[in-house]
Specification:
The complex is a heterodimer of chains A (705) and B (113).
Chain A: E1 10-12, E2 15-19, E3 26-30, E4 33-39, E5 45-52, E6 60-63, E7 69-70, E8 73-79, E9 86-93, E10 96-97, E11 102-103, E12 117-119, E13 137-139, E14 162-165, H1 167-171, H2 186-191, H3 193-199, E15 203-206, E16 210-211, E17 219-220, E18 227-228, E19 238-242, H4 255-268, E20 272-277, H5 294-302, H6 326-342, E21 347-350, H7 369-376, E22 384-387, E23 407-410, H8 412-422, H9 428-435, H10 439-442, E24 452-455, H11 464-467, H12 503-521, E25 526-530, H13 559-562, H14 564-579, E26 602-605, E27 620-625, E28 639-645, E29 651-654, E30 664-669, E31 676-677, E32 691-694, E33 698-704
Parallel strand pairs in A: 14-15, 14-25, 15-20, 20-21, 21-22, 22-23, 23-24, 24-25
Antiparallel strand pairs in A: 1-2, 2-8, 3-4, 4-8, 5-6, 5-9, 7-8, 10-11, 12-13, 16-19, 17-18, 26-27, 27-28, 28-33, 29-32, 30-31, 30-33
Helix pairs in contact in A: 6-7, 8-9, 12-14
Chain B: E1 2-8, E2 11-17, H1 25-35, E3 41-48, H2 54-69, E4 73-77, H3 81-89, E5 97-99, H4 102-111
Parallel strand pairs in B: 2-3, 3-4, 4-5
Antiparallel strand pairs in B: 1-2
The chains are: A alpha+beta (705), B alpha/beta (113).
């Protein structure tokens, strides 16, 4: 039987219309037409503006009749549209009063905040027509992808090994060796899945992939004249659309299918997909920024405004999304649900997440409704939620982010603690916490070790190679007189600032890189590697390459050969972590023997076994994990002993004894003359079972089996 | 869009000429759907299809579903390199057997039991 709502009831010029449904918001394909729905608390009128794809002038403007408004929602079905070749926007009228925070301007055409595809920047870097009356154009998505048997992988959080990457940087370099039209795209990542698998990681965290404008604040580099872009994309234009310029098929408007295909293929290979999402601000900037969408639809609802009508700037990017307004909270929730359900996304990392816990006047909330909603949402129930637990307004919540038993945190204290220890600051007490999954931050609140996303480097800041090659940032190429980027790097150049031919310095740098990787991979919690650190990628000392679409940002695949030794070490350490459950405990250590093995789950040692010097300035420490306590004694594992000597002198470490019949084997020794590390399972027996000489600034990892 | 049909033994050969997009896809859907019956062996010759849009690719997948639901088999022949690439990165290629020429396509369809 036919439903009667396939028939129009109204018309406007040649268009046949009918009252639409208010939900879902956005443009939805329905039998016979498209349902358009958009809300505004303060608009007095609204028209749907239709364009033929790429056309300069609108094809039609259809005012919403009064009877097509339900509450504050304008909703209408338009029949018989050629929706594949259609672009749409809205024109809204309403109050325009700066102090009251109203910015209605009927001369602007506005992007639907729920647009599922956005045209206008279809191919990366193609200079837009600045005279265009409508830059970022809503398009209609089919959302009918054939997922087969795919679903989110739901890897236990403590078993994750995350690889943070930029979509374009990963394969844009010609040395990636892939087809030219795949370089720098989602398709390019798919081509490189074998590399990711070989590396051993099981989650990729993609820097922002929501549509953004690479031309936002684009300008010539004062040194070279080359264009500087909004390259990283931490500035969202549309929260429901993948970045067209990241798709090889963006020119055909098929970015949705391309990204979904990438997710499906990564899942097939055991790799989860985490999206870095930016809900703290939008691309509309401050009072002087462009009107793209929110500002013209419902400025006062979407943004935090000062009583004088200016934008609060807790993001450091001009405006702040009003996340704990009930309407805005819903759009964030709708957005994440959409990505979880429609794209099978495994998790989200929230940029400057502390903003999501502020009230509409900027005060931190004890019980932020948005964070609570996300934590208890049924559709997001199995998604990883990861907070960058600070913001640019001074709120720092590492260890205290409102977690509701769900939220993990980028552990900035791990990063700082390990960096200081590696450069020789002698912070043994601090790193003992880091190695255990930061119980000082999380155990008291009943939060698991996997709450701690452990990282030493991330997109913000030095690469690992630069961390051991520079004392200071060198950001001149950003054109801001080296004022941008962090000054607190806890880095050490090993004796010379920047690249050098000095054999000794280069050897020390390689060792320091290995020390960092080794410590990261034996720490409880979730390790995160920065793209390229596995091959010693450098940014020439630039610790903030947000604007560089060039070799400063791109991964040079030739480094695989140049730094093969580092790559092999990283692969082995990742494999080692994956083969030893004792490194991936779901709960914190209890510092006692609760399985009757004769060893506590974790014990601490120094140059003398069972004896640690915890005083400040001590640079040598070791620990022993009892394999019988792996995953709380539920699985059998080997014993693992890790000795870390960050002193400038070689030291003899006395090794704790093993149960009879077991022997120590050497998995890795970063200080050995011929750097030694082995595939797990092939480690040779240690000659002297009672002690080992640990070189200056070196890490030794032993397996008792 | 120009659609030609011929039968080669058990196989229905459909030759398409022109772009497949939202405006031409319904004609193809209608034409092929009318052919679909249990155990159909269908060869779609795309040699003269310069471009397939998102709607075009969806049409193909939809036909594939109709055909396989009736234990039929479909082969695509003569796809341009660019179309193969687009279909590959958007996941559509995973569903189809493709061959370069009608001869190869026919051989594949007739060797099957």
């Amino acid at each position: 039987m036919e439903r009667i709502d396939i028939h129009p009831t109204h018309s406007h010029e040649n268009f046949k219309l009918r009252l639409g449904r208010p939900q879902p918001f956005g443009a939805t394909i329905v039998p016979g037409g498209v349902n358009f729905s958009i809300f505004s608390s303060h608009a007095t009128s609204c028209s749907l503006v239709l364009f033929k794809k790429h056309a300069k002038a609108p094809l039609a403007e259809i005012p919403f009749p009064d009877e097509f408004r339900i509450g504050n929602v304008y909703c209408m079905v338009v029949f018989d549209l050629d929706y594949e070749n259609l672009e749409y926007g809205y024109r809204m009228d309403g109050p325009n009063n700066f102090q009251q925070g109203h910015w209605f301007d009927p001369s602007k055409i506005l992007l639907d905040p729920y647009a599922k595809i956005i045209g206008g920047r279809d191919v990366w870097g193609v200079v837009p027509d600045w005279e265009d009356i409508y830059h970022h154009r809503g398009r209609i998505a089919f959302d009918d992808f054939d997922w087969g048997n795919d679903r989110a992988l739901e890897i236990p959080p403590e078993d994750q090994i995350i690889y943070e990457m930029h979509v374009r940087s990963f394969t844009r370099h010609e040395s990636s060796g892939i087809k030219e039209n795949h370089r720098g795209t989602f398709a390019g990542i798919r081509d490189k899945i074998p590399y990711l698998k070989e590396l051993g990681i099981n989650a990729v965290e993609l820097m922002p992939v929501y549509e953004f404008d690479e031309f936002e604040n684009s300008r010539p580099n004062p040194q070279t004249g080359e264009t500087l872009y909004n390259y990283w994309g931490y500035s969202t234009v549309g929260f429901f659309s993948p970045k067209a310029g990241y798709a090889a098929t963006g020119k055909f408007g098929m970015q949705v299918d391309e990204l979904k295909t990438l997710v499906k293929e990564l899942h097939k290979n055991g790799i989860e997909v985490i999206l870095d999402v930016v809900f703290n601000h939008t691309a509309e900037g401050n009072e002087r920024g462009p009107t793209i969408s929110f500002r013209g639809i419902d400025n006062k609802t979407y943004y935090m405004m000062t009583p004088e009508g200016y934008y609060f700037n807790f993001s450091g990017c001009g405006n702040t999304i009003n996340c704990n307004n009930p309407i805005v909270r819903n759009i964030v929730l709708d957005c994440l649900r959409y990505w979880a359900a429609e794209y099978h996304i495994d998790g989200f990392r929230f940029d400057l997440a502390s903003i999501l816990g502020r009230d509409p006047w900027g005060y931190p909330l004890a019980n932020p409704p948005l964070l609570e909603s996300l934590a208890f949402d049924p559709i997001l129930a199995k998604c990883k939620l990861i907070a960058e637990a600070w913001d640019a307004g001074g709120l720092y919540q590492v260890g205290s982010f409102p977690a509701y038993g769900r939220w993990a945190e980028w552990n900035g204290k791990f990063r700082d603690g390990i960096r200081k220890f590696i450069k020789g600051d002698g912070t043994v007490g601090q790193i003992a916490q880091c190695l255990q999954g930061s119980p000082n931050l999380y155990a008291w609140a009943g939060r698991a070790p996997a709450t701690s996303i452990n990282f030493i480097t991330a997109h913000d800041g030095f690469t690992l190679m630069d961390l051991v090659s520079y004392n200071h940032k060198h950001n001149e190429a950003n054109g801001e007189n080296n004022n941008d980027g962090s000054n607190d790097n806890d880095s050490w150049n090993c004796g010379w600032e920047g690249a050098t031919d000095d054999v000794g310095i280069n050897a020390l740098r390689r060792r320091q890189i290995k020390n960092a990787i080794a410590i990261l991979m034996v720490s409880q919690g979730v390790p995160m590697l920065l793209m390229g650190d596995e091959v010693g990628r450098t940014q020439n000392g630039n610790n903030n390459t947000y604007c560089h679409d060039n070799e400063l940002s791109w991964l040079d695949w030739n480094l695989q050969t140049k730094n093969a030794e580092i790559l092999e070490f990283v692969k082995h350490c990742v494999a080692f972590r994956r083969s030893h459950p004792v490194l991936r405990n779901p709960n914190h250590f209890r510092n006692q023997d609760y399985v009757g093995s004769g060893y506590a789950d974790i014990t601490w040692h120094g140059t003398k076994a069972w004896n640690v010097d915890w005083s400040d300035g001590n640079r040598a420490i070791a620990f022993l994990l009892c394999g019988k306590h792996a995953k709380q004694g539920t699985v059998e594992d080997n014993y693992i002993y890790v000795a870390m000597n960050m002193h400038w002198q070689t030291q003899w470490f006395e090794i704790p004894g093993l149960p009879p019949s077991l022997q120590w084997h050497v998995f890795a020794n970063t200080g050995a003359v011929f750097a030694s590390n082995y595939l797990p399972g092939t480690e040779p027996v240690l000659e002297n079972q009672s002690g080992i000489l640990v070189g200056d600034r070196s890490v030794v990892i032993l397996v008792g089996k | 869009m120009d659609i030609k049909l011929k039968s080669v033994g058990e196989v229905q050969v459909v030759e398409l000429h022109g772009d497949i997009d939202a405006s031409t896809a319904p004609d193809i859907t209608k034409f092929v759907s009318d052919l679909v019956k249990t155990n159909i062996r269908l060869l779609l010759d795309m040699t003269k299809v310069p471009y397939m849009s998102s709607a075009g690719l969806r049409t193909l997948l939809s036909l594939y579903r109709q055909i396989t639901a009736k234990q039929g088999k479909v082969i695509l022949v003569g796809l341009s390199e660019e179309l193969v690439d687009t279909m590959s990165v958007t996941g559509f290629l995973d569903f189809f057997v493709t061959k370069s020429t009608q001869e190869e396509g026919l051989a594949n369809l007739t060797q099957e039991t």
